[in-house]
Specification:
Layout lengths: L8 H13 L6 E4 L7 H5 L3 E4 L8 H18 L4 E6 L16 H14 L3 E7 L13 E6 L4 H18 L6 E2 L1 H11 L4 E4 L15 H7 L6 E6 L1 H7 L10 E3 L11 E3 L2 E6 L2 E3 L6 H6 L2 E3 L3 E6 L2 E6 L9 H4 L10 E4 L6 H4 L6 E4 L27
Parallel strand pairs: 1-2, 6-17, 7-16, 7-17, 8-15, 8-16
Antiparallel strand pairs: 3-5, 4-5, 9-10, 11-14, 12-13, 14-15
Bound molecules: zinc ion.
Length: 385
């Protein structure tokens, strides 16, 4: 986390806990794989265990592994220490999936090191969060080891870095939305997923960019699904009669980069409290929010064959119950706009393998060159050669 007063909130929290606890209390815990892991966090903790999968389907296993390591430290009376090294790489969110390179090979290398080096307990590959304006943003390794393991840890860091340099790759190709829509219609393998990393709700964006919705309405696609966060529109519509038609501006109210409303006369299809239970208890969303999700009051409106779900709270598209709880089968659409980068796949891979990264303007853009970094330590790949 970055706050107005601290670039490294977790580092500051750990430092304060350590100051209170001295060396008498071990500090163990679990981290998201998208943490920007700093030297201060390493110095003031014993063993922080990061998720190894993105989508994060291993939250439970990570917590259990961390607890087991804590138990074994109590049994032996030996507290491990944490070493940290930054890779000098900054990854767009679409490069952080662990089923694909470069994360796949670097993760495999980490597990290999854990198996072969007796002094090393845990190797974390933390892809980082490149949309935070802080010095240490980017991919970091940390190694939890027995005390005085400097030489073996240095060798392990080198091996990880060599692996990353060998397999690193550019983000997947991104398409103009009209090109992707044409391809979906031509291939006829419905639904086609229009993936929008620049408005990746899981990354903290407002979830109200309407560029893809506009393109869908202007295209030959006859049925599509788009979910937008728009509490103002929900408030306006939720007391109206089902079937009524209202002229209103939809989306684009956050004022964030790329935000722009679209004015339509849609028909009100349904109104709900926006609560649903995850279909997949191991989904990415479960790791962060538990099994019961609240989108806040939610309405579904229809414009011709296009269904637009308007939620009060921006809700990441990580589970198909988001649609099904509103009486909608997402598999019946020709196209779906998904505001995510990687984590949507755990849900949407179940209904299609036709997906396209779309170039829109927004705060979580894949094009890191467009972001106004002021604190990042340079040089760093891919911004500098
Ligand atoms: Zn994450």
């Amino acid at each position: 986390m970055v706050s107005r007063s601290y670039d490294d909130v977790e580092g500051e929290i750990l430092r304060r806990i350590r100051t209170l606890a001295k060396r008498e209390i071990p500090i163990f815990g679990v981290l998201d794989l998208h943490v920007n892991f700093t030297p201060v966090m390493a110095e003031h903790s014993n063993c922080l265990f990061s998720y190894q999968k993105n989508p994060h389907t291993d939250a439970f296993e990570s917590a259990a592994a961390s607890a087991e390591l804590l138990v074994s430290s109590f049994e032996t009376g030996l507290w491990p220490v944490t070493y940290q090294r930054h890779s000098r790489h900054l990854f767009a969110a679409t490069l952080t999936g662990t089923a694909d390179e470069p994360m796949k090979s670097v993760e495999a290398c980490a597990r290999q090191i854990e198996e072969t080096e007796e002094a090393i307990l845990v190797v974390n590959i933390m892809a980082g969060f490149s949309y935070a304006n802080m010095p240490e943003a980017g991919l970091t390794y940390s190694i939890v080891a027995k005390e005085d393991s400097d030489a073996v840890v240095e060798r392990a860091f080198d091996l990880l870095q060599e692996t990353l340099n060998r397999v690193k790759t550019k983000p997947a190709e991104a398409y103009d939305v009209t090109v992707a829509i044409d391809a979906i219609l031509k291939n006829g393998r419905f639904p086609g997923i229009l993936v929008e990393p620049s408005d990746n709700i899981g990354g903290g964006t407002p979830g109200d960019n309407t560029e893809i919705l506009k393109a869908l309405l202007a295209s030959s696609i006859t049925s599509s699904g788009v979910i937008l966060a728009d509490s103002e529109a929900v408030d306006l519509l939720k007391e109206k009669e089902i079937g009524s038609v209202t002229n209103l501006a939809i989306g684009g109210k956050s004022g964030e980069l790329g935000a722009e409303s679209i004015t339509l006369d849609p028909e009100l299809v349904s109104v709900s409290d926006g609560r649903f239970t995850l279909e997949d208890p191991h989904s990415h969303l479960a790791s962060m929010s538990g099994l019961h999700i609240e989108m806040g009051p939610t309405v579904v409106v229809r414009h011709k064959g296009h269904l637009i779900m308007l939620t009060t709270v921006p809700t990441p598209p990580f589970d198909l119950a988001q649609w099904r709880s509103q009486g909608i089968d997402p598999a019946t659409f020709q196209a779906i706009n998904v505001k995510s980068a990687v984590a949507y796949r755990q849900a949407y891979d179940k209904i299609t393998d036709e997906h396209y990264y779309i170039k829109t303007v927004g705060p979580c853009s894949d094009n890191l060159d467009t972001l106004p970094y002021t604190k990042l330590i340079r040089p760093i790949w891919p911004l500098d050669n």
